[in-house]
Amino acid sequence: MSRIGLGCILIALAPILGACATITRGTTTKFVVESTPAGAKVKTSTGFTCPTTPCTFRMQRKDAFEVTVSKEGFASSVTKVQSRAAGSGAAGMAGNILLGGIIGMGVDATSGAMNDLTPNPLHVDLIPNEPATAPAQTQDPAKEALQ
Q1: Are strands 28-36 and 122-125 parallel, antiparallel or unpaired?
Q2: For residues 46 and 67, is the Cβ–Cβ distance under 8 A?
Q3: Any domain includes 118
């Protein structure tokens, strides 16, 4: 096959093979939240909730968000989850350079397919609340005089 014929085939296949990371990794991922102690409530800034840890959500790879973990008797914990380029996402981008071209790179970049959520899994060690102390009792000097 001539170079021109091979070039024509690659150009014809480019739209099909474009967005390699979107095809191979998808735009969502499992996001796991664990806590010590287990059984804490989880709420994300994107509106997802879970009644007790451990739990798993299906989250968009492209969006950063916050996770609040709370349990009665413990201080709540808020963690920022980042969306960052992943090693396997970079491999998808390399596939775009070879086969998918600029269109594939644009699709992968905007869909977040080349990103991972960090940290994932998210593990939170909850800190017990301090026990409430009773206020120190002071004597009223007027009462003491009457006694």
Answers
A1: parallel
A2: no
A3: yes
| pLDDT of the residue at 102 | 54
Closest residue by Cα to residue 66 from 51, 82, 50: 82
Quick one: three-class SS letters along 14-65?
Answer: HHHHCCHHHHHHCCEEEEEEEEECCCCEEEECCCCEECCCCEEEEEECCCCE
pLDDT of residue 29: 92
What is the count of structural domains for the chain?
Answer: 1
pLDDT, block means (10 residues), the chain with 147 residues: 56 46 70 98 97 96 95 98 74 49 54 82 96 61 57
Residue 141 maps to a domain:
no
| 136 found inside a domain | no
Locate 117 and state its tokens.
């959520």
**Could you list the residue range(s) of the whole structural domain that residue 63 is in?**
10-126
- Rounded distance, CA 54 to CA 67, Å? 13
pLDDT value at residue 107: 55
Q: For residue 103, how many C-alpha atoms fall within 13 Å in the half-sphere facing its CB?
A: 9
